[in-house]
């Protein structure tokens, strides 16, 4: 009875039926962190005497003090204790917040770590949501219910700009230390990979495969993290995937992954190559930290992170490409990845790795500098060197980027003009509707389509002699 009475104090409903709830800008009361502000979430395992169980602290403006339609910095810091808790579980608990806070009606939680994006609805505020302490207490209740190895938990929610900025610097050091621990282990060193279906409420067919050489798409879970999660919470979203037979060592294709892919995607796809952009690529959920995009005009790859809001050389911003990339699909031409994957020795090795990369935002390039081969670093353009295809092509030629050599080979290849008539299937029509920046400009007398590394199913194509 006591637990039921406490739950009734919350001015919102709580349950899995609200997971995946989206709050559009017109319906939001306030936005916390997100692409137009900043923030983070952090879990710290400490001793029991360092935690005041159930305590909720708010530092900075609370919901009742915020201006409707406003945006504020936001940090959520949790101290947890329990006899079975280990440091390895910090990232596991942290990542589960995306699922559990999604249970709160009128509260939208997206992404992870330093990329969190929160919105609170106007309806929730009208119903009595006036303090972040209400959210933090509901969240702690959910955590202790779902993860019984958490015996004590305390929350500190921060909206004070200076304090969020200060604590974020320390949080980044924690994230880096976690990621570095996993770098000494490789795919061939283990016989088990791990899967994550945490994002299936947003992307029903997505199955994130985490290996020593491929961090999760959200960047929050390494192989060590998912292993720890599967061990302490066997009924949770992380689970073991036996590697099985290696089908393609370079592409990163294993029979065990393919078998689970069929099961967990509901048959939506049956093959996955962990380290390929073009052939059976990994699915992309929506929480990915970075989007890779193919530039057919230059036969190269560009990458853009959430923090870069300008237009990329292909004419599209991150937000537009995210809609094309996410949803749990194998999207040829776009790929979501975690930032840690750039530092993997197997980074897109089936396609040439960094020899295929032609453009990165400056801040992202600096951040992953230690993962880029030294001889290629100055040959990869940023927004300071190129903002469109023409300037990017000029830069790559001046720097003698490896992709330039592939242009010369393609110029010698015979080009076959293809005229697509009205009888073409919907797949062909879909191809024709792609933006020019994604496919190449059409010429004057008819349409010439040159398909490179593409998989297109067309029912009928009529080829006529010019």
Please outline the helices and strands.
Layout: H1 2-7, E1 28-33, E2 39-45, E3 56-59, E4 70-72, E5 74-81, H2 90-100, E6 107-110, E7 117-121, H3 122-126, H4 132-146, E8 152-158, H5 161-181, E9 192-196, E10 208-210, H6 223-232, E11 238-242, E12 246-248, E13 253-254, H7 255-264, E14 290-295, E15 300-305, H8 318-325, E16 334-337, E17 357-359, H9 362-367, H10 374-377, H11 389-399, H12 402-412, H13 426-432, H14 436-439
Parallel strand pairs: 1-4, 2-5, 3-8, 15-17
Antiparallel strand pairs: 1-7, 5-8, 6-7, 9-10, 9-11, 12-13, 14-15, 14-16
Helix pairs in contact: 2-6
Give an overview in words.
With 466 residues, the chain is α/β, with parallel strands linked by helices. It has 3 domains: 181 residues, Bifunctional carbon monoxide dehydrogenase/acetyl-coa synthase(codh/acs), Chain M, domain 3 (2-Layer Sandwich); 227 residues, 3-Layer(aba) Sandwich (Bifunctional carbon monoxide dehydrogenase/acetyl-coa synthase(codh/acs), Chain M, domain 5); 53 residues, no CATH class. The chain has 14 helices and 17 strands. The strands form 5 sheets. It has a 4-stranded mixed beta sheet with strand order 4-1-7-6. Strand 6 and strand 7 form a beta hairpin. The chain is globular and about 75 Å long. The N terminus is likely disordered.
